[in-house]
Amino acid sequence: MEDKVLLAHGSGGKLSHDLISDNLVPFFDNALLNRLDDSAVFELSGRLAFTTDSYVVNPIFFPGGDIGRLAVCGTVNDLAMSGASPKYISISLIIEEGLPMADLRRVVASIRDAASEAGVMVVTGDTKVVDNGSADKLFINSAGVGVVPPGVDISGSYAKPGDKVILSGSIGDHGMAVMSRREGLQFASPVESDCAPLNGLVAAILESGAEIHCMRDPTRGGLASTLNEFASASQAGIRIEEGAIPVKEAVRGACELLGFDPLYVANEGKLVAVVAPEGAGDLLDIMRCNRHGADAAIIGEVVSEHPARVVMKTAMGASRIVDMLVGEQLPRIC
Amino acid sequence: MKFIDEYRDPELGKRLVARIRRKSTKPVRLMEFCGGHTVAIAKHGIRQLLPPTIEMLSGPGCPVCVTANADLDKAIALAAVPDIIVTTFGDMMKVPASRSSLQQAKAEGGDVRIVYSTQDALDIAEANPTRAVVFIGIGFETTAPTVAASVVQAEQRGISNYYVLSQHKVCPPVIKALLDSGEVKLDGIVCPGHVSAVIGSRPYDFIPKDYGIGCVVSGFEPLDILLCVEMLVDQIEAGHPTVEIAYKRGVRVEGNRTALELMYRVFELCDGNWRGVGIVPGSGLKLRPEYGRFDVEKAFEISPGEPIEPKGCICGEILRGVSTPLDCNLFKGVCNPEHPVGPCMVSSEGSCSAYYRYGDGYGG
Amino acid sequence: MAVSRWDRRSSPTSPVEHEETDKMCLAIPALVKSIDGVEAEVEIGGVSRKASIMLTPEARVGDYVLLHTGYAISVVDEEEAQETLELLTELVEAAEDV
Fold first, then answer.
1. N or C end of chain A: which has fewer CB within 10 A?
2. What is the SS3 assignment for A85-110?
3. Range of C45's domain?
């Protein structure tokens, strides 16, 4: 076995076949993938959700995860945010010539582990190898399909005055974890990416009986951008309390050091939901029982004042606007 | 976090605010001269907490905003020179100059790199010995000593391809120029926090002496700013203007001698070109002749072209405190952080950026 | 109802090393953990980074310094910090007696 990925591995010939059969298929070992047909053929009934994402995170390995884990969790979460139960995903790799085979295997193993954790199957994929310089180590695209249970109807435009805003846990972990590897910062208590599949948490949320209006994972652009999207789509105002938003000490330290605002830093294992007030308290308890919702908190509510705007009450008691992220705070974060 | 969290105590804040409200009887106008204060005041909603008797204005405290187009154009011209690597703080990238910006220059093929510290720029110079590495030196007396330090380090490490484009400025002369112009009547000055950590509080002695206006050096946390405001209110109510330091944990009367010495070892005073104010004598810093070999303008010929000012942009008036961003016709419409017309909108410490991001300070 | 949206997850591939943040006046209090000549390792909130103490050669391990763009520009005067807090608390308590 070669120790680096070569252009020939992408040519479609014997080396390609070896790459797939030695380094990809064995990791997944499921009936659909093993056939190595041009398409995976399966039956799915009900309302389907379909999504795709590309992953270009730099660096590809970071504390708490890597590009492979991200590729699975990101796609699984996109499906979950629509209320869907994710079933099958595809993985397409664009590999820069020269990538060490050990790195590729590590990423693929990570994809396998994440898929297993999420309970989804990788049923089809593709690999391409490009010239040195034409891609940065590894880019991944993944697409996913899932089934939306009957009666589930979630949209960013459904927020209503009186609704509560619930956040599933601390913000800023993923963005700062990636930055820690880029900036050459050393962390005494390392910040780890929160990259995780949230379909289990979402299933618990949907089963709770609470009336869920909006739900989204605040990735690029952070919590602030997601809340602004809800406010804008729903033409309602959102008020949040600075003191209620969980931020880990090490993340606060990293943000202070680099001058970032945790509200705008990407998360890959958190969700924010807007729910009718009646069930909010019970929902919070249910979320806190799930490992991905242990630090869940009600951070604010939807109001009729200042429609389409998000306002935050600071620790000092003043109110200020929380605007959409403008420009690129953290490039190539996911 | 130590020395930060304690100064964000909401209970102390509430009661300090109540005290200020009780004490403040006369309408007063206070101006801050520090971009960090502009942001902190907006972010913590200080205006909202203060009584209506106190008006807080922003002055020309954002080093990016006060850099004239003619000077910004030089940085962009450097990016177009093939063998030059331009290194800069991130704040500069999107600032619109006469015809372009550093970000645009980079998109057009210029080698422009954002650095966190001049030390990173030195490392880049060492790693690229066949190319010239220029650091775009923007900033007041907080930053100028760090650039001076980098020049001295380059000398010590034998780095011969490191250059500086000095657009540094010093604060006290522009405060004087603004007071002399009489355009805005001020009752008190919130003196810069970290500039003062370097220069101390003595350079402000002329303010109460010649203008009868009090000044207090402020820190950046909400309690710091409120304490500073209270001290100014006390001075004004008693009719006793003087120089005081509220930010005692960071600023000493004599400042940081080592930093000052290093700064004036490498730099000397010259005329400074302040956007919105014009030329202010003795307010700029240029490399001394003995450090001339680090001066990029001596080593390379650059043609920045004629400077062009953007139409309709009132950054100049905003910087002098004559207007606020709300008075500008372009604010939020044509001019916004994605498509800034002037630097006050794109600089992370600009007034317009602060108003845009955090609201007008009154919760709106 | 079929709803699709272009995913927000996509990021540009421009290799920008750093990004715009509140930098120019920003100086934060960090604890000096170790010193090696003019270089120090400083820590804030559990996060550590190297910094130059060329401008504050008097800094010692255990001091807090104000860190600005990779340089310590001032040593935090902890006594003054304590006094300021006491002043604030006293003022507030005195005010309550009024």
1. N
2. EEEEEEEEEEEECCCEHHHHHHHHHH
3. 28-97
Q: Which fold has domain B5-61+182-239?
A: Rossmann fold (3.40.50)
Query: Is the minimum CB–CB distance between A328 and chain C shorter than 8 Å?
Result: yes
Q: Chain B partners of A239 at a C-beta cutoff of 8 Å?
A: none
Q: Give the domain ranges of chain B.
A: 5-61+182-239, 69-170+255-299, 315-358
Cβ of A189: how many Cβ atoms within 10 Å?
12
d(CA B63, CA B147): 15
Place of tokens 């995170």: A57
CATH code of the domain in which C70 resides? 2.30.30.140
Among the residues of A196-333, which ranges form H helices? Answer: 199-207, 222-234, 249-258, 280-288
My answer on whether A187 and A303 are in the same domain is yes
**Which residues of A fall within a CB distance of 8 Å from B44?**
314, 316, 318, 320
Domain assignment present for C5: no
ipTM of the prediction: 0.90
Q: Give chain A's end-to-end CA distance (angstroms, integer).
A: 30
Q: What is the pLDDT of residues B169-209, one digit of tens each?
A: 999 999 999 899 888 899 999 999 999 999 999 999 999 99
Q: Return the CATH class of domain B69-170+255-299.
A: alpha beta
- d(CA A281, CA A42) in angstroms, rounded, equals 40
Q: Rounded to whole angstroms, how far apart are CA atoms C38 and B103?
A: 34
* Separation CA B356–CA A121 (nearest Å): 46
**Chain A residue nearest residue C14, CA to CA:** A331
Q: What is the pTM of this model?
A: 0.85
Residues in Cβ contact with B351 at an 8 Å cutoff, skipping those fewer than 6 apart: B38, B58, B62, B65, B318, B319, B324, B325, B344
| Residue C4 within any structural domain of the chain | no
